Amino acid sequence: MKQKVILPYQFDAEGLEPPSYAHQGDAGFDLRAAGELVIEPGARKLTPTGLRLAIPQGFVGLVWDRSGLAAKHGVHCLAGVIDSGYRGEVKVVLQNLGSEPFTVERGMRIAQLLVQPVAQAELVRVENLEESARGEGGFGSTGLQGKIFYRWGIRHKSSGGCNYPPGLLLFNSGINRRLCHNL
């Protein structure tokens, strides 16, 4: 179901293209850097966009990575929630997870913004929480042990001592490493 949302904005980045969707049907529209900066490996910087929004009540703006920057340069977005009541400039926290300094050029597409409906929960304090099948398991607790996997159309079951499916190949910098020998 398509839901059209009117999104009023101000744009204070003279000479730059205003925000827009790159293609019909895209989930997010591009956010561009309003200035130039260099992010050293391991560092993060707050990057201005010159954009101010009036996100409607009942919606949220979510800042997401641009897949090309993440895949090619290791540049990742952090802290990407824009509440409906916020009227300041949208700034993007960029972190360089790569091994080389990364230069953000003025006008570069640095992130994308998704506008989505959001529910506001009514918080109710209770003495006990309802039990669930999962319980307190988290942070990888389900693992891959004993699960059924398919690789090249062949059914495999992971075995004891191997946290990955049998014969799983890990692709890392063009080198194939077999993680489990019992294929």
Observed structural traits:
globular; 183 residues; four-stranded antiparallel sheet; 1 helix; mainly beta; Deoxyuridine 5'-Triphosphate Nucleotidohydrolase, Chain A; 14 strands
Structure description:
The chain has 183 residues and is mostly beta strands. The chain folds into two domains: 9-117, Deoxyuridine triphosphatase (dUTPase) (Deoxyuridine 5'-Triphosphate Nucleotidohydrolase, Chain A); 148-178, no CATH class. The chain has one helix at residues 67-73, and strands at 9-11, 29-32, 37-39, 44-53, 59-64, 75-78, 81-82, 89-96, 102-104, 109-117, 148-151, 154-157, 169-172, 175-178. The termini are far apart. Residues 149-183 have low confidence and may be disordered.
CATH topology of the largest domain: Deoxyuridine 5'-Triphosphate Nucleotidohydrolase, Chain A
Quick one: CATH class of the largest domain? Mainly Beta
Write down the overall geometry.
globular
Q: How are strands sequenced across the largest beta sheet?
A: 1-4-8-6
Strand content: 35-45%
Going by helix content, strand content and strand pairing, the class is mainly beta
Distance between the termini: 44 Å
Query: Residue share in helices?
Result: under 10%
Radius of gyration: 22 Å
Provide a count of the helices: 1
Outline the biggest β-sheet: 4 strands, antiparallel
Number of β-strand runs: 14
The CATH superfamily name of the largest domain is: Deoxyuridine triphosphatase (dUTPase)
Low-confidence stretches: 149-183
* Quaternary structure type: single chain
